[in-house]
């Protein structure tokens, strides 16, 4: 028997949350009798057939195999967290300056710094000589370079820096590990899926764990328990 438009809508709505009462309401049935209407509709053979057919079609579209689940666990377990976020040490301003003097990014940055110092001095009530910074260290500062091991200022330690990579550019495994990011009052919080749990799931899938402890005697026979003064046979 063909379903009415209202019944077809009920089937569609029921598949959203499998709640017959709410599906009946969304399909246009009265809120007062939605509970009874939902139960009555689910009892109809034609509704059950329509629901089963729709569920089968949906299952075909989102079919997930055991191999796909295993591969997902492998991706999470063996992803490199450093690809998402890592702590690194980068060079200081003196690492690669000429003769290890302060190095500027470019002339524009240097001139902007000079102008700022002059403006600050002009607005200051205290008249002090203006100390213009030197450009003897040259230009070309790259804040992503590793520290110079013989820098006299940072002694090769550089500057510690927490770096978060662009999550749009992550590898497939890193994307599987990445569980989200949010801003908090303390800064940015990055969430990862549990790599240890993923590895445990892989081990269980491969039968590497034996949850049942079996105790037996020699050759698989019954356990022999020896007490003072005699032997008791268990099993």
Strand order of the largest sheet: 1-2
The main β sheet shows up as:
2 strands, antiparallel
Global geometry = elongated
Average pLDDT figure = 87
| Distance between the ends | 63 Å
Strand content: 5-15%
Rg estimate, integer Å = 35 Å
**Estimated structural class:** alpha+beta
H/E element order: HHHHHEHEHEEHEE
Proportion of residues in helical segments: 40-55%
Number of helices: 8
How many strand segments? 6
Low-confidence stretches: none
Question: Your description of this structure?
Answer:
40% of the residues lie in helices and 14% in strands. The protein has 235 residues and is α+β, with helices and mostly antiparallel strands. Among the domains are: 5-61, Terminase, small subunit, N-terminal DNA-binding domain, HTH motif (Arc Repressor Mutant, subunit A, Orthogonal Bundle); 86-164, no CATH class. Strands 1-2 form a two-stranded antiparallel ribbon. α1 (5-17) crosses α2 (20-26) and α1 crosses α4. The chain is elongated and about 95 Å long.
């Amino acid at each position: 028997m063909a379903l009415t438009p209202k019944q077809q809508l009920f089937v569609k709505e029921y598949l959203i949350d499998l709640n017959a009462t709410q599906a009946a309401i969304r399909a246009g049935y009265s809120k007062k009798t939605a509970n009874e209407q939902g139960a009555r509709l689910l009892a109809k053979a034609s509704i059950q057939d329509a629901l089963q057919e729709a569920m089968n079609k949906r299952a075909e579209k989102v079919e997930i195999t055991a191999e796909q689940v295993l591969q997902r666990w492998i991706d999470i377990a063996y992803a490199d967290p450093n690809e998402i976020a890592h702590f690194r040490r980068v060079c200081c301003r003196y690492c690669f300056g000429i003769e290890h003097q302060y190095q500027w990014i470019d002339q524009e940055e240097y001139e902007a710094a000079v102008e700022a110092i002059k403006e600050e001095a002009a607005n200051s009530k205290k008249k002090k000589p203006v100390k213009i910074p030197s450009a003897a260290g040259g230009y070309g500062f790259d804040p992503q370079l590793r520290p110079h091991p013989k820098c006299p200022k940072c002694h090769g330690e550089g500057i510690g820096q927490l770096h978060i990579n662009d999550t749009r550019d992550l590898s497939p495994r890193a994307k599987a590990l990445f569980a989200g990011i949010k801003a908090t009052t303390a800064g940015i919080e990055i969430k990862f899926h549990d790599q240890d749990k993923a590895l445990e799931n892989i081990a269980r899938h491969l039968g590497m764990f034996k949850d049942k402890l079996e105790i037996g005697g020699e050759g698989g026979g019954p356990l022999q328990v020896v007490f003072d003064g005699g032997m008791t046979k268990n099993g």
